[in-house]
Design brief:
With 519 residues, the chain is an alpha+beta fold. 26% of the residues lie in helices and 28% in strands. The strands form seven sheets. It has a seven-stranded mixed β-sheet with strand order 4-7-2-1-13-16-15, with helices on one face. It has a five-stranded mixed β-sheet with strand order 18-19-22-24-23. A four-stranded antiparallel β-sheet has the order 5-6-3-10, with no helix packed on it. Helix 4 packs parallel to helix 6, helix 6 packs across helix 7 and helix 9 (444-466) packs antiparallel against helix 13 (505-511). 50% of the residues are buried. Zinc ion is lined by residues 346, 375, 379, 398, 401.
Length: 519
Amino acid sequence: MPLLTLLALLLCGCNLSQPAPAVRPTATTFSAAVIPTLASRLSTLPPAGSNATATPEPTATQSQPTAAAADLCALPADAPIAQHRVDAEVDIAAHTVTVTQATRYLNRTGAPLNDLVFNVEPNYWLQAFALTSVTGDGVGESSITGRRLTVPLTTPLEADCATTVTLAFILTVPPVSEGVEAFKGYFGYTDRQFNLGHWLPTVAVRANGGWITREAFFAGEQNVLDVADWEVGLRVNDETWLAAAPGDVTEYGNGRYLGKLPRARDYSISLSPDFVKSTDITLDGVTVDVYTLGNTEVQTAGGVVDGATHALTMAARSLELFAQLYGPYPYQRMIIVQGDFPDGMEFSAFSFVSTTWFERYTGQPDGFLTLITVHEVAHQWWYTQVGSDSALTPWLDEALSTYSEYAFIEQFYPTLSDWWWDFRIDAYSPEGFVDSTVYEFSTIRAYINAVYLNGVRMLHQMRQDLGSEAFFGILKRYVAANAGRVVSPAAFWGQFSPEELAATAATRARFLRRADVGG
Ligand SMILES: [Zn+2]
């Protein structure tokens, strides 16, 4: 069953047609006694440091469990599949994070579930994840194998009912390493940065009667993520380290923060004692915050220029352009964080852009500081909004994000169009099937060449086949139809009319292993 079929099930009123379950979870499973609210947990944390002054009382009344008094089998139709409430205490010197995570999972699969599976990305690393406890009503003996935590339910979770599982664990964050592993530095630390990307367990996507956990691999990503609502309370034991976090963030002082982000595939945070923040507001009213690590000014023949300012402008202009081309950006705020690891990395309402690209900034737009900033912003449509299987069909987000760089260059720097094709694509003589999985490559370069760069060539040829208006119309409809979902390529091809499919058949045959449009 393709993922889409699963997702179609979300729309059915399955609860009405199901026999009454023998035992349903009750509202008490989500009571404050079981899951202390973030506000109460934060207020009971000890003050930061011996010189801490009065601790302001968090007033996050919104942190009350929204379903505390509601029937957990009668949640609103638009309730998210998962809702995470997290308390995290960061010990900067020890590189550890002590976490309590309460996850309410709503069974929209249409059938009872006998277990829940969490994907635990940090367990990719040796000894980075230490599970302390798994608790909740009807939770059996859990087990973890690799990045997969299985939580048996002693009473099946009926369709359209929710249950809450609380995980307690300690993360020991690894240093940002050398070589290919350095690309995973979004979960890692340097002497001036502590990065928490893909640090929290997420409930696996359910498809074909099973839970999806993709095997870890050095190249690309292996996440398949549903959207969820996030509330993350953070306490940092060294308050000189500031947090860059997405969404609506309340700062309580003494290293304490509460971040909220609805309908997001992840909630990521970076900490540094060196952060310099610069802010802009787009024409659409989106606040853009760029956090750099200082020293982003470059001396040029024309005077001093600041890479932070450039990244901020590129982020704001690309958010505006992509909103026009693909549909609205779904949040009030977007943050860009200079990352002490190679390249860049997309998260929900958050992107890392590598220190390397800031260092190589020349004051001119023709470089990777421009392209990677724009690329990561494009992922807010091709990842954060339209989700896909990053291991098996990585082209769905990466080819579109890379092609979005070209759309940006065409719009704002048209004289650099030829440069972009030479510098970004043709110089690498890309080859390989666009619809390859990440597992088919022995180098990151070969993976990028096939999936990203040949993917761009395929998309551009389709634009020639169809005309720009029809091509971008397809992309806009694709977002509107699939935002919040996890899709297979069939959802993309489903936006093409029969005539458009015919017009692009030769292009598909040239670039794809599977030129048919199903599956
Ligand atoms: Zn990308």
